[in-house]
Prior knowledge:
heterodimer; A: Alpha-Beta Plaits; 4-stranded antiparallel beta sheet; B: mainly alpha; Ammonium transporter fold; 15 helices; 68% helix; 0% strand; globular
Amino acid sequence: MKKIEAIIRKTKFEEVKEALLNSDINWFEYHDVHGIGQSRQERIYRGVQYSTDVIERVAITIVCRDQFVQPTVNVIIDTANTGEVGDGRIFVSDIIDTWSIRTGEHGDTVLRDKK
Amino acid sequence: MNDIAISLDTVWMLLAAMLVFFMQPGFALCEAGFTRSKNTANILFKNFVDFMFGSLLFWFVGFGFMFGSDGAGFIGRPNWGDLSFYKGTLPVEGFLIFETVFCATSATIVSGAMAERTKFSMYVIYSAFISLFIYPIEGHWTWGGGWLCNDAAGSFMMNTFGDVFHDFAGSAIVHSVGGLLAFIGAMALGARRGKYGKDGKSRAIPGHSLTLAALGVFILWMGWFGFNPGSQLAAAGEVNRTAISHVFLTTNLAAAAGGVATMFLTWIKYKKPSFSLMLNGVLAGLVGITAGCDMVSPLGAVIIGLICGTVLVFAIEFIDHKLHIDDPVGASSVHGVCGILGTLLTGLLSTTNGAFYGHGWGFFGAQCFGILVIDLWAAACGFALFYGIKKLHGLRVPARIEDEGLDIYEHGETCYN
């Protein structure tokens, strides 16, 4: 089992969400994140020009069986890509075990396939 | 005058008073939108304080200071709640209400400039003083029939300038006084924490809702249709119905021109049209036209709007970047600078006696002198009041309260939960 964490553009979230639901993923979490990075946005407020280095992104977290890692990553790369700097990153890490709260069973069979 | 005509005039005056009253929520929303959400209950409360204290004190004392009789034309006799001294064709109680909403407008201008860092108790003291004293006395010099508007042959103004000071609905009397007090108040207070960096550069502190600010400005624009045309104080008869219609038009044109000027200027200056400044630009045009809305042509109104909307941007920059006086809503620029500007431009653009229409410089001189006297009075009162309170009572909340928000510490309740 692996955990896939992807930081994507807010504007791309709807597309990524649809694509993930159409692939073999039946549950994922997401949250709005604020990051600090190189890119800056120029703003003006009441005649004061300033730049903000706070970057707003959406972080998606997916836990899936090993065989779905590559297809899922491909889906995200395909849909979240604009070709411009700031498209985001995908991180994959190991998950030691998974338990189902309802049945008490554990192991990667808990993460059932959709089909 | 026949009875129906007086009734018609009264209804128009009371209707206009309602519109001017509705400028209070306009100011409240505008100020709330331009400031941060942690101080919203506080700023709304201050707008209520201005109107509540203004209503009571102007009824009890201020009305007498402003319209009471006296010999020299400098200060009226306080009425102590007794309205029977007033001799006019319009019912005195309606007239009192009409004048009350103008007084409260002048008072409520200040809260925005002093937003987000002022002690609530201090603000109550200030608010009482302007409605009790500062506004009614300069109001007496002008609308109260005092020396600046005394057109009797041989009076000081007629001898010196050959004309009297003219401020139809209060560019000088209401707005420049409120704006100047806002300026002095903000100066005495000092900037909000974090407004100016260690290098002295101005930082942006974006307000929490430009939606509220926009609604506020639209409401103010509507309220101004009572503020200016209502100041005719009559509707019956051909002269009056023509006059109020003319004032409606000049008021609207100046507001539109003010907003347009600011929009294009910020577009050129900052590469993007600035919404927050355009909102101020509309108000700048409205404040500017208020003095001469009855005297200038529609084209003159557009010129006044364009000038005010342009000067506004530079005034806001100058006050913020150069003087380092922190005015979160731009009240000192909108009401102070454009109030003065509108009063002076009336002297140039009035079709009946303005300098640009070949009537000589006497009226312009009267305008210059009038605004100087009124604003010296306001400035003197402002310095004495704000620096006096600073010494005796303190103006600012402690730093920790300012950081956490005035709502929680000053009032114990927040606007957004």
